[in-house]
Amino acid sequence: MRRRPWLPIAILAMLGIAAAVVGGYVDWQWWHPTSGIIVTIAAGAALLLAAVVALGRTPVTRMISMAIGTVGIGLLLGQNLGPSREAPILGSGTVTLQLTEPAGAAEVIGRADCNLTASGDNFAIWGDPNIRIEVGDQELRDRDFVGISISAGDMWEAGAEPRPDGIGVSLLVGGGGPIPEDGAPSEVMMASAASSELEGTVDQRSGSIRFSGLVVDPTYETGAVAEPMDLAGTVSWTCEESALER
Question: Domain of 111?
């Protein structure tokens, strides 16, 4: 049989390229350092395993070791040389929620934490979790808390599922009234889906979205789940870069 001395090199090259593609893709999707470190750990584990296998000192174990090591190196190259996300810009501002459903809810305004980007294609705004919804003449202790989340793009994703327009809105509502003796107050995450109606001006510095048709977010897990709520209205925000980022 005719020998093909180039074949092992070609196989290793294909393994390295495939690993680099995987490393770059995962690092793009898991751009946050706390998630992206998983690629580094996987690459380090592959290199360590390659070193252990190489102790076998046989042609087969050497080839296996080289293959595993190539995968580890490819992951690192893809992670570090592949395309990078925009660096987040921290900011702060205000968020305003005016509900038309349920009827009679008063307008609420609270502080907002903002994650912005230079292009503005990706951003996320989170409202102060201490904002309370007032419906009618409710006493303060009976008002539900509402956690407001708005996002655009795919770096931060609010909503129960991705939408073609990349916009997401989530409202975490609950916790009002006396705390039950048998557990924590119930709450429910109502979030936008592909079927939800979202209209308005979407800009990371100042925007407003009219929303309706929110659904229960199945990915949000809590010990006590409240009943789904029919929520509709408008959420508005303003954001400015923090002084440290300027």
Answer: 89-245
